[in-house]
Specification:
The protein is an alpha+beta fold and 165 residues long. The chain has a single domain (12-162), classed as Alpha-D-Glucose-1,6-Bisphosphate, Chain A, domain 4 (2-Layer Sandwich). Helices cover 23% and strands 48% of the residues. It contains three helices and ten strands; from the N terminus they run E-E-E-E-H-H-E-E-E-E-E-E-H. It has helices spanning 39-47, 49-55, 141-162, and strands at residues 2-7, 15-16, 19-20, 25-35, 66-72, 75-82, 85-98, 101-108, 116-125, 128-139. An eight-stranded antiparallel β-sheet has the order 1-4-10-9-8-7-6-5. A two-stranded antiparallel ribbon has the order 2-3. Strand 6 (75-82) and strand 7 form a beta hairpin. Helix 1 packs across helix 2. The longest helix has 22 residues, at 141-162. The radius of gyration is 17 Å and the shape is globular.
Length: 165
């Protein structure tokens, strides 16, 4: 389902009290999933806040957790509330938003957060569509695995939403 590409090119090392920790690497996540729906409905599910709340899945999200998605023109925000307390905010900015190709930058609203670039392509294939996602950016290993788990879980939920019609 996913492929990882690592590069040490432009990999800044992170120093903590003169101790070198793991370098941030240019890490890429590539995924393709088949969704039983046309591209127009998938596109709407990807960009409309009320639909985004249904399919976004965050690592560690539990039953009591709630996602609230907001949008203003080309900017969007995803808030995760756990036990009525804001636990995480993700911010994003669309660079291109067309029915078959969506490009955006996305980052956690926290100290030392790094922006990543996400490209989603939608291609029709008979009675279904193929969603291709590529995410790249400079991340430490732990952050990379968080993003990988988040996109795998979210795309699986998106597939599930469209499998019941």
């Amino acid at each position: 389902m996913s492929k990882t590409t690592l590069s040490r090119q432009h990999a800044p090392e992170i120093f903590t009290r003169d101790v070198v920790t793991e370098p941030a690497l240019d890490r890429r996540i590539s995924m393709k999933v088949k969704v039983k729906e046309g591209t127009r409905r998938i596109f709407n599910a990807l960009i409309e806040p009320e639909y985004r709340e249904l399919w976004i899945r965050l690592p560690g999200q539990d039953q009591s957790g709630r996602i609230v998605a907001l949008q203003s023109k080309d900017l969007f925000r995803i808030d995760y509330f756990q036990s009525q307390t804001l636990s995480l905010t993700i911010l994003g900015s669309y660079r291109k938003c067309r029915q078959r190709k969506i490009n955006f930058n996305w980052w956690k609203a926290s100290l030392n957060s790094v922006s990543s670039f996400v490209e989603i392509r939608l291609d029709e294939c008979f009675d279904r569509s193929i969603l291709s996602l590529t995410r790249c950016g400079m991340f430490e290993k732990q952050e990379y695995f968080w993003h990988k788990e988040m996109w795998e879980g979210s795309l699986a939920k998106l597939q599930e939403l469209f499998s019941h019609h």
